[in-house]
Amino acid sequence: MAIVQMKKVLIASHRSEVTQLLEDLQAAGLCQILNAEEAQIAKDWPELGGAIEQPRDIEELLGRLSKSIRFLEGFCEKSKGLASILSGRCVIDEQSYRKAISNKEILEIVSQCEQTESQIDKLRVDIENLEETLHKLQPWHNLEVPVEELGGLSRTFSLAGMIPTQHIAQAEQQTVELGGAIQRVGISNNQYACIIVGRKDELPELQKMLRSLDFEVFSFESMAGTAAQLSTQTKNKLDQAVKQLNQNFQKATELTESLLELKILHDHYSNLLSREQTKGTAPATEQTVILEGWVKRKDYPQLEKVVSEFGASSLSEIEAGEDEEIPVEIENNRAFRPFEVVTRLYGMPQHYNVDPTAFLAPFFALFFALCLTDAGYGLLLIALIAVFIKKMQGDKKLMWMLGFCGVFTIFAGALTGGWFGDAVQQFIPALSPFREKMMWFDPLENPMFFFKLSLSLGYIQILTGLFIAFFHNIRQKDYAAAAFDQLTWLVMLNLIVICIFVGGKAGRISGLMALFPAILILLFSHHQGSWGGRIGMGLYNLFSAVFYMGDVLSYLRLMALGMVTAGMAMATNIIAKIIPDILSTAIGIPYSIGVVVAIVILIGGHTFNMLFSALSAFVHTLRLQYAEFFPKFFEGDGKLFEPLSKQYRHIYIKGS
Fold first, then answer.
1. Is 360 exposed, middle or buried (0-12, 13-18, 19+ CB in 10 A)?
2. Does residue 595 lie in a domain region?
3. CB neighbourhood size of 581 (10 A)
4. 254: helix, strand or coil
5. Strand, coil or helix: what is 291?
6. Spatial contact of 307 and 329, defined as CB atoms under 8 Å apart
7. Quick one: which of 128, 149, 327, 333 is 20 to 30 A from 236 by CA?
8. How far apart are CA 44 and CA 29, in angstroms?
9. Within a domain: residue 487?
10. In this predicted model, what pLDDT tens digit does every residue of 497-522 receive, in sequence order?
11. Closest residue by Cα to residue 33 from 403, 411, 295
């Protein structure tokens, strides 16, 4: 368990070989390279600022590849469902990779994808418009007059449109009063298709009246023929468009045969873009590119070997600049490594700080287990995690961490008697003696013990955080902080606990002794400023004892979640046990069918309870680490070490 030691390095390379050097550095994945804004050498010599060259052609090609991949994935059955999420990247060998990136014809596939997608989008819009036109023409089928002949007279007008059924009678009456007439043609969606005719001098009044009755004009502009003929023509166009759309769908499905090659090419150009951006933003002279960056101390010999293969390149170790932020990487042994997920999610420590992973790991697994307190759920969780680990690709740390938590849950469940709730007592009473032999306590029968256990574990974790900060300050030779920020609190808190829970003469003595560290906190917990300011801040810090009490009480969520999980499991068992009798006596359903229903309830109920409770356990255990434990010794504002390396989003090369 440690924060990895870093070295700052400077690589000077002639422009003739920097491209190949960057490719080798990327393949090795050893060195984080700084751009001109971050590099110290560019600050000391501003004339070395990077050219900030933008590889526009590669960025454009990557955009086209990404769009083509997204398009084709919609026509690939393998890309759908949970299996695609678990399977992740396509596994290929080096030969297939080389063959794909050297295939010049693959760019023609990109063009075909773009053309096909454009055609599909256009045809979908055309089909939508034709369907809308067909729907609008439907109520006009009885109109025998060609639509282009409507409104052709010099002294009269005609309007075609839709009138709501509730207004049709009023519209007919008022139209007649204004010297016009309405002819109903058809009806659709509670609207009448109508032709309104009248003298042109009455048109303004008629239009005003019709607007008040929600009249909607229907335009036959650019149409010719009867409504029935127009519907037939539109239907033929629609059929043709659907046929063309299906043809393009078929073509897209055929193009999916090249999907893997497109993904290979996308990842290849993504890595190329990363190298080009690194080269374009690095400090440089006319002939030399300067790569300043960081490498893990243990990887420095390997970096030397990579650079030594280039005759016009050199590597040297340099000193970090004053107040320069050093990137951070953490490494832990196999037992603690999965719990790095918690640390990384919070934020990396500073390079001078402490890696909290090994300290939080046992607490996290134990607290998660106490939130579930069911051995059956632990077994079910491990089974699900095993499937995920086997099927998924990429980083599996989270799955392994949950697997460890599942193992702890089995032990916690056995010690509290939880085997799918009270399933042993309800359905397999013969196993009750075996269950009772393993039990430590029953949370439902002895909740106060669970109450005290949760508070005790919380108190222990908070003290652990203070101890970590104390020893870290000693190691950093910050003795004042160790003495007045941690040691005084460790002594005072323990004396207060003895005073409260032991009582008697020992309790009174402990209470009096607690005054001494309290005075030290009052006078010296704030190390700067005037004595008035120090004492004022000391009073505030002393008041923080209340916050410690709140932190400890926060751990009662372990008891609450554990008992809720047990209660839900018991409720599931009770419902499943009584449902066959209820169905048999109340409804007359055969008892055997009731048993099947009970089994479904057991499987569904316990699965839901396990998943929901596991989610709650994870979230609340995470909160305890972040809100109660970490603030005692840890600040997660470090800068993550991000070496230049090859990243593969879509593929995995065997042996890489």
1. buried
2. yes
3. 12
4. helix
5. strand
6. no
7. 149
8. 28
9. yes
10. 888 777 677 777 877 777 777 777 77
11. 295
Tokens of 127: 């089909």
Q: Three-class SS of residue 219?
A: coil
Within a domain: residue 279?
A: no
Give the predicted TM-score (pTM) of the model: 0.80
Q: Measure the CA–CA gap between 270 and 421, rounded to whole angstroms.
A: 51
Residue 194: closest CA among 157, 143, 228: 143
The answer to whether residues 623 and 363 touch, using CB atoms and an 8 Å cutoff, is no
Q: What confidence tens digit (pLDDT) does each residue in 193-225 have?
A: 999 888 888 888 888 999 899 898 888 878 888
- Provide the token pair at 223: 């149409």
Pairing of strands 90-92, 651-653: parallel
The confidence band for 307, taking pLDDT boundaries of 50, 70 and 90, is very high
The residue segments making up the domain with residue 616 are: 337-439+447-632
Spatial separation of the C-alpha atoms in residues 653 and 570, rounded to whole Å? 49
**Smallest Cα–Cα separation from 604: which of 566, 575, 580, 564?**
575
Q: Which residue matches tokens 């393993």?
A: 438
Segment 128-138, tens digit of pLDDT: 999 988 988 88
Could you give the angle at which helices 531-543 and 545-554 cross, rounded to 10 degrees?
30
Contact 32, 327 (CB under 8 A): yes
How is residue 429 annotated by DSSP? G
Backbone angles phi, psi at 364, to 5 degrees: -60, -50
Task: Please give the structure tokens belonging to residue 547.
Answer: 């916050």
The DSSP result for 365-412, as a single string, is HHHHHHHH--HHHHHHHHHHHHHHHHH--S--HHHHHHHHHHHHHHHH
C-alpha distance across the termini of the chain, in Å: 27
Q: Report DSSP letters for 6-18, one per residue.
A: EEEEEEEEEHHHH
Q: Kindly give the interhelix angle for 357-372 and 557-582, rounded to the nearest 10 degrees.
A: 30
What's the domain count of the chain? 1
pLDDT tops 60 at residue 419: yes
Q: Which of 221, 56, 216 is nearest to 147 (CA)?
A: 221
Residues 6+ apart with CB under 8 A from 71: 113, 116, 117, 252
Is residue 93 included in any domain, yes or no?
Answer: no
- Is there a contact between 253 and 262 (Cβ–Cβ < 8 Å)? no
Q: Which residues 6+ apart lie within 8 Å of 436 measured at CB?
A: 417
pLDDT at 455 over 90: yes
State the amino acid at position 105 in one-letter form: E
What residues does 12 pair with on adjacent strands? 290, 314
Q: Judging by beta carbons within 10 Å of its beta carbon (0-12, 13-18, 19+), is residue 187 exposed, middle or buried? A: middle
Compute the distance between CA of residue 518 and CA of residue 506 in angstroms, rounded to an integer: 18
- Cα–Cα nearest to 293, from 541, 555, 25, 80: 25
Smallest Cα–Cα separation from 196: which of 154, 151, 131? 151
180 neighbors 207 (Cβ within 8 angstroms):
no
Torsion region of 138: left, alpha or beta (phi above 0 gives left; psi -120 to 50 gives alpha): alpha
Residue type, 256: T
Q: Which residue has the tokens 């099947």?
A: 596
User: Would you state the structure tokens that stand for residue 572, as one six-digit string?
Assistant: 């599931």
Contact of 6 with 34, CB cutoff 8 Å: no
Residues recorded for the chain: 656
